[in-house]
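Inputs:
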Amino acid sequence: MPAVLTVDPRSGVPIYLQIIEQVKRSIALGILQAGEQLPTVKQLAIDLTVNPNTVARAYRELEREQVIETSPGRGSFVRSNGVAESPKVAADIGRDALDVALREAKSVGLARDEIRELFDAALQRWFPTFEK
Amino acid sequence: MNYVEWLRVRNLLRIVAIVLAILVVLAVALRISVARYMSPDTWVHESMSRPGVKVSHTTLPDGTPRTILNDPAESTYAIIDDHGYAGKHIVITEPSSKAHKENTHVSIGSIEVKESRNGAMTTTVIDTNGAVPMLYYMMLADFVALIVATVLAAPLAREADGHLEVTLTKPVPRARYALGAIGADVVGIVAASFLTVLALYFCQVLFESARLDFTGINSRAILMGLACPLAWYAMLCAATTLLHRSYIWVLVFTPAIAIVVGALTLITPTSVVALFIHDVAWVISRLDPLAYVSVPQPDEHGQLDYNGSSFFLRLSLQVLFFVVYSALAIWKWQRVEA
Amino acid sequence: MSTITISNLRKLYGRIPAVDGFSLEIPSASVFGLLGPNGAGKTTTFKCMLGLARPTGGEILYDGKRLVPETFERIAYIPERSVLYDWMTVEEHVEMMRRAFRSFDAARAFELLATFDIDKRRRARALSKGMRTAVMVALAFARNAEILVLDEPTGGLDPVNQRHVLSLMINEAAKGNSVVFSSHQIGQVERAAEHIAVMDHGRLVMQGVVDDLKADRKIVEGVFPDVSFTLDGITSDARVARADRTERIVRLLVTGGADEIAARLSSAGAHGVRVLDLNLEDIFLYAVSPATATTDVVAKDISS
């Protein structure tokens, strides 16, 4: 398991949510493949130095969202449709990021058109298209 | 469960053993340096082992072997009666020119030497009763045991001095822990007495045969000698748990106070003030186990008597002191808070 | 496995209540962090839990039963200050524990001592404060105890060793044992603790599951166009625990429904309304800091 999972306990975001987000992200990026085994709850807790029940909660939630499946005695594995859903997962992540951005932008009083302009400019910076 | 206390006891006994070992080494050195003076009878033999000395052996009516050494050339005559475990009786008759100038009477331990001059001849009588002077042994052992008792004392106060979080979270009832600690110290005190007696016995044996005698005054000396430091120890335990002062100061000052109070009880009350002081001191000293110990004095016949009738009363008092003071300390321990 | 129930604990020292009606239930097989300012009563609570101090009122039960000497087989304790014997070596301390407790693992103790770089032949008086703490940690975690009560277990330790202790605590939790600890290092509590309770002036002011507290508690912040505004409609909501205002800026501490309350604040005329996350330190500071003159809502019970 590459050490791509990190958590920031000092963040206001609960640790179990951070773990969930990071697992989804790893799947979306292909770092975690279909059928690949996740570390055990105990092992991940020790690696991240966080409470095991927090990890367990994250795993339960991931299982509920059908991103991973757990067989007792064997471990937790990435579901195949978890991977097939990586575009969906990516979409989830993207949507959450946009929500945060829009909430911020709206809170400082920007109007819809202004935000749209800023958004297009940003898109141009991030996905440059060389048009004549 | 009381490993800490046993460690303390062991460490202290090590020191006691080292001190006693030094004593023994000194005795051995002394023994070697006076190697010429061996047992009285060997000395006599040595000094008389010149050609011309006639040696003869007889047996007395009671079975005692008697050796007679006769040196006519020097006009010296020696009789050695060997009573085995009861010691030896030696009579030496020699010209006064060879003996000491004055009459001497020396009594060291179990050896007694009497020289008396009769004109031109001097008679020297040497008696060894061969027995270990248990009384004197116990007096020294008592002294050592009292020191050990004072150093070991207040095990519970020591625990209360910053270790309660460890001691009171052990899976053992408080009273049992306290008894265990006191028990370890009792073993230490008795062991210290035993080691001292052993060392003294060894020193004596270097110089002469020594017979262990547990009769009469000796057994009483042993009993009181064991009971007294234990009672003293228990008193210190009770004092340190009740006085709430830093226990070290209590351990340091109690012996001094006991001595002062004891001395004050010896004041002859010549005035009202002196009488008052004497009475107050006497009352306070009733709490002190040492006040009930008396050193036996020889009576008009030169015999030591150990105040026979009151002995068992005073011994029981020591035991009572030990029980009551220990109970006080344990009672306080039940209530202590971290 | 043991649940610890503290009911209405009171402890007076003279006339001063160190603990004043404190109730808490500590579930088994979890890590429970006890937070509070200095003098809040955490150490006194631990002492009462372990029978080192006699409660003036209330009681503490282990699985419904009172504490008896035999219970100590299952409890390991690290006190706040060093209780080692100056004249004994570290090895002798290990031997002492081995003889006192059936399930003490001496080999593990020596392993842990090596991790903390402690020479077992040294006498305790030759150890620094941090090293003494490390020795107590090693002795406690070699106990194989079901319940560990740790009072500031990282006092005096350097950051590397603090991590070691944290890992040890998490390991115990993974094994299914209970850990109750107090620490001023909120970062450590955030990592290791699943449940926390906050104590102040001898009382419980807040408790909960760390992840839930972080998820639910937010600051809703807004800026009003002028100083004359009212928050009555909003602060009457039970979920608004506190409202602090500084001139035109309003910060509401909410225990749930942050987005909804943010919307209401916007409707009330605030601009720049945003929802801020709180980490455990923030939550703790809000719990123990007194309401200020600018606080509109004072001391709502947010202890659940």
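Chain C has a mean pLDDT of 90. Flag for discussion at group meeting.
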